[in-house]
Amino acid sequence: MTIFSTHDSVDSVAVIPMLTGEDVVRLRQKLRQHVQDIRLSLVEQTKFVTAASELARNTLDYGGGGEVSIELLKEDARQGIRLTFSDKGPGIPDIQLALSDGYTSGGGMGLGLGGAKRLSDEFHIDTGADRGTTVTITKWKAF
Amino acid sequence: MDRIPILTMGRILLVTIQVDMHDQLAMTLQDDLTERIVKDKARGVLIDISALDIVDSFIGRMISNTAAMARVLDAKTVVVGMQPSVAITLVELGLRLDGVRTALNVERGMELLDMGVSFRHH
Fold it and tell me: Fewer Cβ neighbours under 10 Å: the N or C end of chain B?
């Protein structure tokens, strides 16, 4: 847990290993609980859980497995939920290309990264052959 | 659960997805449906997804692929019962479900299939 100020807080609520297809389902179900707890609208819940599902599959299929951490964020006027997907895979050589719709290096439709970005409020990616890939997405809800 | 049950109604195969499917389960359903179309000489496939809270690109691809395989085997696929929040998310995700007919509920889906099937006969 990290406290940035008296108002802002980050509370780590779960770290879920992402090693099998069942783990993706487990993440979706766990996440559904948390997005309901912070009272996101049903549409926003659905968008965020779908984004998480896409990224979890990337972690599994392209990153060779990894983990996902769920954090609850609090600021003065809003609360949010942040997911961090990390793997120690080969990294993504061309992020711009990977973010464009239709691009896929695997068997998918190539909507994962770009789609997850559109479905989230904030999106950040760090990737490299030496350090794998870490993707962070955040959804905010005003109080 | 390692299989989604497939029911038969005349020449129509009926599937109600009631669990949060992991990828392997979705692939098994796709294969099972394709086999059953041939085995049962089905002319239509109706997939009820009203219990699904999300449809991500993997499930979407499974549905599109199933429809494409059914089409090659001379059967029509209708997906029914998509929740509004799922529809909104699908569009934003960029998933188009190409070649898949949709209907609001099972009844309308059956109508679509009946029309499609009888249309071929006359």
Answer: C
